[in-house]
Amino acid sequence: MGFTGGKHGGADAIVDEVPYIKMFLSKYSDVCAMVSSQPITFYFGFVRRRVEI
User: According to the lineage, what is the superkingdom (predicted)?
Assistant: First the structure.
């Protein structure tokens, strides 16, 4: 799997639930890392790509 970063259509950061991040890192720890596991919000947040109309 190639990780390209935000400038090339990928992601620079992903904010998700820690158990899912740990499961993801068990497979891709050679190219990805979790840099912080501090809670930053007490609510759900959603992000999607903006579509120009």
Answer: Eukaryota
